[in-house]
Design a protein that fits this description.
60% of the residues lie in helices and 9% in strands. The protein has 112 residues and is mainly alpha-helical. The protein has a domain at 58-106. Strand 1 (66-70) and strand 2 form a beta hairpin. The chain starts with a helix and ends in a 6-residue tail after the last helix. The relative contact order is 0.11. The model has no long low-confidence stretch (mean pLDDT 90).
């Protein structure tokens, strides 16, 4: 009778070990996904902070408009920035306007 009990006990122990390992692997995979997601959100938040800091550091006129030099028309402009820090004169798809917005975000736009 002892050998049957011992065999059954070992089988139960192996089954339990497989179950625990399976659960630990699942928990580890979920943790890794959460960590990657958190890292991505943190990087996105840092980028948004830098963009806002750079855009808000632009010189402004008495009405609060950003004083920028328009790349497209090569002239000084005082432009209101929208919620994505694009000047009011922004033309989507135009390479000069796209470059202007990138420069505003990077904090390296020409001002006056």
């Amino acid at each position: 009778m002892w050998p049957a009990v011992k065999t059954r006990s070992m089988a139960d122990r192996r089954r339990l070990e497989r179950f625990v390992r399976s659960k630990l692997r699942t928990a580890g995979a979920e943790y890794e996904q959460l960590r990657e997601s958190t890292d991505a959100q943190l990087a996105e938040a840092r980028q948004a902070y830098e963009t806002a800091k750079n855009a808000n550091s632009l010189p402004t006129d008495s009405e609060g408009r950003a004083k920028i030099v328009c790349r497209r028309h090569t002239e000084q402009r005082a432009a209101v920035l929208d919620d994505q820090y694009r000047p009011a004169c922004f033309d989507p798809g135009h390479p000069d306007c796209e470059g202007c917005v990138e420069d505003v975000h990077d904090g390296c736009i020409e001002t006056w």
